[in-house]
Amino acid sequence: MRAAVLRTYNEPLSIEDVPDPDCPPDGVVLRTIACGICRSDWHGWVGEHPRVKPGQIGGHEYCGEVVEVGRDSRWAKGDRVVAPFILACGACPSCQSGHQNTCPNQRLPGFIEPGAFAEYVAVPMDHNLARLPESLSPMVAAGLGCRVTTSWHALTGRAALQAGEWLAVHGTGGVGLSAALLGKALGAHVVVVDVVREKLDHALSLGIDAAVMAGDDTAARIREITGGGAHVSVEALGIAATVNSSLDCLRALGRHVQVGMPVGHTAWMNIDMSTVYARNLALFGTRGMPSWRYPSLLGLITAGVVDMSPLIAREVALSDTSAELAAFNGPTPPGMAVITDFGG
């Protein structure tokens, strides 16, 4: 099969013919229909993700068609499914208590095991998979493995965003724009922040209530717009400037949710804990989504309550993956790229 392989950090991926994956006894092999290109992939490509090593096939936002089933699989050939990027064991105390995204035995295609920047991908522990609704585009469904599910769980499983509250979103890439659109679907008022005016205008065109250019007065502008501060703030970049802005834009008893991945040189940062203390703020970390929550999100999308298609800016070929990753080295335009051509 064709795959895009990391050989050297921050250099173009190598498009190679590699062996087809073996089918896990408790899983399936999928023909990859679509795979998103995510900022988390970029963290691995530049060498800042601690688990991604040379030789890795990336890609963790994927959906596909079952072409081979293991002896213990509940799926059948021809089934179309979407996979969370965290594959949980289902048997440990974390999984049994409903927190599969914190499973200590988790499997991570795209980070440790071969991922979906390839024609085929093996998926172990396939009880984590969800059936792809016929009405849902595979391009949109690919984002349900990471950016959309992560945002959904951040808002509903962690911060408990309520209708009528103000939500601030710092960064309008894939996960940030997902959070903004889902926040509106939940009945919140939403203000977004970015350094790219085009991305703010794009968000406003989708019905987002307000937009702020990032700068020294970002938090003050949000407090003004929201009449005293946001109730919930999502940080979607993982850097100190936006983390502190997210904290400072909150009203008393506000909730900050850390969605952006702080790795490499941003793993440790200076945080204004005085604001946390003085305003009685709550800080939530979040990563992924328990797989049992897929029906709540899929139902929202298939019922037409929220349209996630504006997340997708372009369909690309496998050979274009390196250029898309390199684009994350600087400010990016609105929307995400999804690989749909694995022969090109």
Total number of β-strand segments? 15
| Termini separation | 12 Å
Q: Low-confidence spans: pLDDT under 50, at least 5 residues?
A: none
CATH class of the largest domain: Alpha Beta
In percent terms, what proportion of residues is strand?
15-25%
Q: Going by CATH, what is the homologous superfamily of the largest domain?
A: Medium-chain alcohol dehydrogenases, catalytic domain
Domain Enoyl reductase (ER): 8-339
Pfam family, one: ADH_N
EC number: 1.1.1.1
Cofactor: Zn(2+)
Q: Could you explain the architecture of this structure?
A:
This protein has 344 residues and is of the alpha/beta class. The chain has helices at 39-45, 93-96, 138-142, 147-158, 174-185, 197-205, 218-225, 240-248, 273-278, 294-302, 321-327; strands at 2-5, 14-17, 28-36, 61-69, 80-82, 120-123, 130-131, 166-170, 189-194, 210-213, 230-235, 250-258, 282-285, 312-317, 336-341. The strands form 3 sheets. Strands 3, 4, 5, 6, 7, 14 and 15 form a 7-stranded mixed sheet that branches. A 6-stranded parallel sheet has the order 10-9-8-11-12-13, sandwiched between helices. Helix 4 crosses helix 5 (174-185). The longest helix is centred in the middle third of the chain and has 12 residues, at 147-158. The two termini are 12 Å apart.
